[in-house]
């Protein structure tokens, strides 16, 4: 598996994965617009198997989305993407990363915890379709 920075040419494949994984997916235009203010990485194996995005506001970042195709789940793809983003953050002066995750998404919560994220709060009724709370999680760079 190869992790690399996302390009505009990757957007159709990434948007398709987004549609498979989320009830309110970003559009292709949303990804294109997001690339102005966010950093995205994709995992290839050999096709795009997943992606991660983060808005960057040094010294903080906010994970926008993490998604992996069904075929590549439980094979370390999400973990590799998250670790690469943390490495990028560390190299670019980002000391803290936050994210929201559906409170019932135990596989994602487990992934985030194994990568050093801790739950710091809850946003009530944050998600729709279906309505669900979001756990707010945080990662801090070790000094």
TrEMBL record:
One of its GO terms (molecular function) is protein-N-terminal-alanine acetyltransferase activity. Keywords: Acyltransferase, Cytoplasm, Transferase. It is found in: Cytoplasm. The keyword Acyltransferase applies. It holds the Pfam family Acetyltransf_1. Its main location: cytoplasm. The keyword Kinase does not apply. Residues 1-142 form the N-acetyltransferase domain. It is an enzyme of class 2 (transferase). PROSITE patterns: GNAT. GO terms for cellular component: cytoplasm. Acetylates the N-terminal alanine of ribosomal protein bS18. Belongs to the acetyltransferase family. RimI subfamily. This is [Ribosomal protein bS18]-alanine N-acetyltransferase.
């Amino acid at each position: 598996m190869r992790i690399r920075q996302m390009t505009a040419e990757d957007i159709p494949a990434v948007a398709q994965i987004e549609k498979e994984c989320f009830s309110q997916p970003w559009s292709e235009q949303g990804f294109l617009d997001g690339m102005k203010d966010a950093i995205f990485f994709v995992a290839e194996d050999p096709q795009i198997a997943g992606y991660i995005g983060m808005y960057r506001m040094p010294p903080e970042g906010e994970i926008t989305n993490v998604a992996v195709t069904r075929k590549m789940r439980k094979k370390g793809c999400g973990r590799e993407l998250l670790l690469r983003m943390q490495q990028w953050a560390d190299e670019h002066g980002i000391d803290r990363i936050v994210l929201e995750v559906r409170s019932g998404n135990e596989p994602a919560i487990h992934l985030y915890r194994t990568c050093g994220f801790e739950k710091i709060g809850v946003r009530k009724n944050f998600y729709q379709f279906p309505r669900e709370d979001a756990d707010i999680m945080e990662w801090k760079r070790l000094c």
